[in-house]
C-alpha cells in the first residue's frame, strides 16, 4: 500500500458505502441487508475493542462455564456472544441465530423478526486469547424461506445457499473480509475514524501456493490421502520445492493468510475425530464460501464443501481449502483411494 498517498486520501470507501453501492444494483432492495451488516460490523468493533483491552481489563481467563462442545469458555467468548446476539436481534432483520456458544438456535421474537438467518462463531480461536495471538469472528448469512414460520431447516441448508459470509480478524490490525457472492473484499478498521475502509479489493487466492497449514500433531491418526498429501508437501517427487508449514491454530488467521498468500489449510478427519473438528455452519461454510469466491476450492474429502447438507446445527466436517491447484491434488488422492476400495 502507498501510505503517503493514503494519508491524503479523501475519498474513503467504507464498508457501509461499499454495501450501499452493491445494493444500488438491485432497485427492489430495501436496505435490509445493509442494516444487518451494520449490526454485524458494530459487534466486530465492540469485540475488537474488548480484545485490545483484554490484557489490561482482566477480561482474560475462564468464565467458569463450558460450551456445547465441552470446551472451557473464556470471558471474552461470553461477552462476544452476548454482544452479537443483542446486536443482531436489535437489527430487526434476523429471525434465527446459530452461535457456536449456544446449544440451541435463537428464534427471534415475532415483533423483532426479519428475513435473515445468521450463523456465527463470535470468537473463534479462543484458546489463543491468553497469548494475544490473532483470533476472529466468523459469520454466514442465509435468507429464511418463510419469515412467519422459521424452522431449523432454514439454517440446515447447504453452504452454497448462503447469501454472504465473512470474518473479522482481531490481529495486528482489525480486518473484516466479506463476500456477498461477488468476489471477496477486505476492509481494515481505521481506529481514529471507527470505520472499516476498503484496503483489499477483490482478493484472489494464488492458483497454487507454497504453504501448507495443518496440525501435524494429529498425523498418527490421519487417513491415507491426508498422510500422502502432507508427505508430498515435504518431499515432492516432481522436482518442485518443498512447501513451508505455517499453523497458527486459529482458523481465521490461518485462512486469512491462505487467501492472501495461497496454499492449503487442512483440518482433516482422523481416527479419533472421524468428522474432523471444525463446525460446518459457522467455520467450514463461511470459509469455503470465501475461498471459492476468491477463486480457490474447498473440499471435505468426499465432496465440494458447499454442497454438504448439515443435519445438526453444531455438526462438524473435515475440510481442505485453499489454492485451486493445491486442493485439486488432495482431491486426486481421495479419488485414487476411493478406486482402491
Ligand atoms: P479454539 O476456539 O478452541 O481455540 O479452537 C480453534 C479452532 O476451532 C480453529 O480456529 C482452529 O483452526 C482449530 O480449532 C485448531 O484446532 P487444533 O488446536 O486441534 O489444531
UniProtKB/TrEMBL annotation:
GO terms for biological process: fructose 1,6-bisphosphate metabolic process; fructose 6-phosphate metabolic process; fructose metabolic process; gluconeogenesis; photosynthesis; sucrose biosynthetic process. The keyword Cytoplasm applies. It is found in: Cytoplasm. It comes from the Eukaryota. Signal peptide: none annotated. CDD domains: FBPase. It is an enzyme of class 3 (hydrolase). It catalyses: beta-D-fructose 1,6-bisphosphate + H2O = beta-D-fructose 6-phosphate + phosphate. Belongs to the FBPase class 1 family. This is Fructose-1,6-bisphosphatase, cytosolic. It comes from Herrania umbratica. The gene is LOC110417339.
Amino acid at each position: 500500500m502507498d501510505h503517503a498517498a493514503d494519508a491524503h486520501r479523501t475519498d474513503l470507501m467504507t464498508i457501509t458505502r461499499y454495501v450501499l453501492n452493491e445494493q444500488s444494483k438491485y432497485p427492489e432492495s430495501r436496505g435490509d441487508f445493509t442494516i444487518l451488516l451494520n449490526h454485524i460490523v458494530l459487534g466486530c468493533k465492540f469485540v475488537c475493542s474488548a480484545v485490545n483491552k483484554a490484557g489490561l481489563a482482566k477480561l482474560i481467563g475462564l468464565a467458569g462455564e463450558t460450551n456445547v462442545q465441552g470446551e472451557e469458555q473464556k470471558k471474552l467468548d461470553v461477552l462476544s456472544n452476548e454482544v452479537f446476539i443483542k446486536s443482531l436481534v436489535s437489527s430487526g432483520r434476523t429471525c434465527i441465530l446459530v452461535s457456536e456458544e449456544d446449544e440451541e438456535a435463537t428464534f427471534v421474537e415475532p415483533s423483532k423478526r426479519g428475513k435473515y438467518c445468521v450463523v456465527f462463531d463470535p470468537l473463534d480461536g479462543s484458546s489463543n486469547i491468553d497469548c494475544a495471538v490473532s483470533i476472529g469472528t466468523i459469520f454466514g448469512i442465509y435468507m429464511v424461506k418463510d419469515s412467519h414460520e422459521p424452522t431449523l431447516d432454514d439454517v440446515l441448508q447447504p453452504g452454497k445457499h448462503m447469501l454472504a459470509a465473512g470474518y473479522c480478524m482481531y490481529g495486528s490490525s482489525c480486518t473484516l473480509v466479506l463476500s456477498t457472492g461477488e468476489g471477496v473484499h477486505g476492509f481494515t478498521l481505521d481506529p481514529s475514524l471507527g470505520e472499516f475502509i476498503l484496503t483489499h479489493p477483490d482478493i484472489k487466492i494464488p492458483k497454487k501456493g507454497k504453504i501448507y497449514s495443518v496440525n501435524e500433531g494429529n498425523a498418527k491418526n490421519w487417513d491415507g490421502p491426508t498422510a500422502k498429501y502432507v508427505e508430498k508437501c515435504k518431499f515432492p517427487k516432481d522436482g518442485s520445492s518443498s512447501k513451508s508449514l505455517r499453523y497458527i491454530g486459529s482458523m481465521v488467521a490461518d485462512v486469512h493468510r491462505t487467501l492472501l498468500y495461497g496454499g492449503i489449510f487442512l483440518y482433516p478427519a482422523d481416527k479419533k475425530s472421524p468428522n474432523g473438528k471444525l463446525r460446518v455452519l459457522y467455520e467450514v461454510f463461511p470459509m469455503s464460501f470465501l475461498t471459492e469466491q476468491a477463486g480457490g476450492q474447498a473440499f471435505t474429502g468426499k465432496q465440494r464443501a458447499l454442497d454438504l447438507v448439515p443435519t445438526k446445527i453444531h455438526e462438524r466436517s473435515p475440510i481442505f481449502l485453499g489454492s485451486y491447484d493445491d486442493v485439486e491434488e488432495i482431491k486426486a488422492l481421495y479419488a485414487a483411494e476411493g478406486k482402491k476400495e
